[in-house]
């Protein structure tokens, strides 16, 4: 037999507590039965023995107190604290009943209760000690009877020895069984706890998946669905589990794939399908489906179909993003390698131009210079994209919006915009924003360079203005160019996209990346602005900065003239 106590008394172990409560209740019932038996005997004509009745009442009170107020603690050895109020009390009470009993009744069979209780709930040592104590009490009772009668009681001694031997056999048989059941229960509880933890982890993981996950039975009922699957199923967002896929015609492709999966069985490969779910009031939703059956655990287990739903638009968007990232890395490497030879070409062309006198040759040198400068700009834009993607954190900087924007407009007009008129309309003279000054300069120069290609020759064809709302500061670059085509407007901020063959398609993409790094936003819209020709529609690129602080600022000018 194992010397380890069965850990019955953990508060969470309901089976162990039931056994303890069962024994405690049995003791109360035995005490109550003995007392009622004495009352019944009295009704049948036998006199009551006051001492015996008092003993029965005290024993009943003791058992009730243990049943109601006492229970084992998980931190103690079983019965270490409760041996005296339970088994010890039973031994004393039953022995006293046998000695004080007024008639010819035998109360020694009641000693089997503490023996059984010690064998089930105690350690091996406790169980053997209790059984030995019961055996000695039986022998002592026979000795007392022998001394009183002074007659040989060999049969009674043999009976006491035989009863004690039987109790020892019960102890040797019951205690190992109880200990093994306790170990099995602990193992089952550990397995249940592990399964619960695994189920909770699986639930969290599945809920956070970007792809939809459905679990279906063979009657087309959805047993489980993560949030992504509910979104892809549209109406199912408001439907409680379980629900039937047969309830909507739009889900018919899912039902067909599930039935094919069940028909194939668990031994086959996962089935896939590309389907389009048609919902009323919206376009088709293209999905890529994968389905397979759960492996069978036994012959009676119900197999389920696990179906994964992937939105093809999102997968195509991820693929495009990965391709653009790879293209960006490659372009940055190529641009870095081109920059040094290009600088040598520009320098050599400049030295050659100084020696040329023929006008035709001069024009050729100028063409070389212009195209080299264009290549240099494209190279710098590609490298700017690479730098913007690598810089995720910038030092916090606060700049006066009107001062910074006005200075950039003035510098741009002096260097690149001499042939046009630029109006700067400040509307936030005392406001500052959290933004890097060099990055704001880069954004403004890109927007002004783009607008310069499409504006008219009027004095107010190009305007830069700032203003505020209760929660934002805004900066706008407006030009009177022709409206953009819808397909072009949708892809303005994509890298390498441009409607002009002379552009690299990286300027607006760099603007958006820099705005994202600072928590700002940039957008395009077609709006009307006041001009000398009246209200005129034009193309506006607007920057919205995050909440700002008030600081003093001054402006050296209001309008930049040609």
UniProtKB/TrEMBL annotation:
Transmembrane segments: 24-45, 51-70, 127-147, 153-174
Lineage: superkingdom: Bacteria
Annotated catalysed reactions: ATP + protein L-histidine = ADP + protein N-phospho-L-histidine
Alphabetical list of InterPro entries matching this protein: BphY/WalK/GraS-like (IPR050351), HATPase_C_sf (IPR036890), HATPase_dom (IPR003594), His_kinase_dom (IPR005467), HisK_dim/P_dom (IPR003661), HisK_dim/P_sf (IPR036097)
Ranges where the Histidine kinase domain occurs: 333-549
Keywords assigned by UniProt, alphabetized: ATP-binding, Kinase, Membrane, Nucleotide-binding, Transferase, Transmembrane, Transmembrane helix, Two-component regulatory system
Enzyme Commission number, as recorded: 2.7.13.3
BP GO terms, sorted: osmosensory signaling via phosphorelay pathway
GO molecular function: ATP binding; phosphorelay response regulator activity; phosphorelay sensor kinase activity; protein kinase activator activity
Record-linked SUPFAM superfamilies: ATPase domain of HSP90 chaperone/DNA topoisomerase II/histidine kinase, Homodimeric domain of signal transducing histidine kinase
Protein name stated in the entry: histidine kinase
